[in-house]
Amino acid sequence: MADSLSNGYDQNDIASSFVKWYDEGFWTPHGKVFDIGITTQKAIQNLKNGIEPALAGESGESSNGNGSLMRILPLLAHVNKLDADESFKIIADVSSITHRHLRSILGCILLLEYAKLLQHDSPRNALLTMSLNFHNELHHIPDLKDELVHYKRLFDGKTMDEFQKLIITDSEVQKMKNPMDLLTPSLASAKLEDIKSSGYIVDTLEASIWCLINSKSFEEAVLLAVNLGGDTDTTGAVSRRDSLQSTMVMMPFPKNGLTNLPERMT
């Protein structure tokens, strides 16, 4: 997708690149596709059968794997400075090429919103900022807002109004050493055994953010993600702290020609 975006955003071109990847091994390490999710495979077959990209993705609740999440990050370079409405629409369009359920779309939006914040803040503070402010971005998109319940561990800290009330009225809160912790979503304090690393989009997003919060370097974040087990390659890829912060994909690409890709995309 990054290669397609280097020539500007075009949903049809992105979709065509997916077909080329599947049929020809385009941008694979050894010229061969060795693994593909069922939902993504069905969507690519839909594209090959002439279904338009916006409708190619599966939309059932059982189709909320992490396929669109794992490849959405390069889109940050395109949507980074757009307003929320336009950004969310483009993210939805790109996710829908393979994953059209609202939960998958929301997961992609959340990852890119988090990545935006990571350009200027630490992983933990970025999560706190997103948890306090993101609801306002969805006030006019009720369908997406309804899906937030599935990502509750990213948003279940106290609201600012609740926090301010407690600071005034609750003597126990007033004695707390770090009362700001009340604002922090529970994912930030989750233990290793609380984290799932499955192919479900919610699990992957939570695991990836948790790894970023609990590491201090690119290497540590990826190693932590891989050691979670489960869908290790995807969680490791989404957890690339350096990629999130620099809005580029830090992967060992197999061919020449991507040295200046970040410059071409921005």
Q: Which consecutive residue ranges, at least 5 long each, have pLDDT under 50?
A: 241-258
Shape: globular
> What value does the average pLDDT take?
83
End-to-end C-alpha gap: 14 Å
How many β strands by DSSP?
Answer: 0
The biggest sheet, with number of strands, parallel, antiparallel or mixed sense and barrel status, is: none
Beta content: under 5%
> Structural class of the secondary structure composition?
mainly alpha
Structural description of this entry:
The structure is a single chain. It is globular, with a radius of gyration of 19 Å. It has 266 residues and is mainly alpha-helical. The longest helix has 17 residues, at 102-118. Helix 13 packs across helix 15 and helix 14 (218-226) runs antiparallel to helix 15 (232-238). Helix content is 55%, strand content 0%. Residues 241-258 have low confidence and may be disordered.
Protein topology:
Layout: H1 2-5, H2 11-24, H3 38-48, H4 53-56, H5 67-71, H6 76-79, H7 84-95, H8 102-118, H9 123-137, H10 142-147, H11 160-169, H12 171-175, H13 201-213, H14 218-226, H15 232-238, H16 241-246, H17 261-265
Key terms:
17 helices, globular, mainly alpha, 266 residues
In short:
The protein has 17 helices and no strands. The protein has 266 residues and is mostly helical.
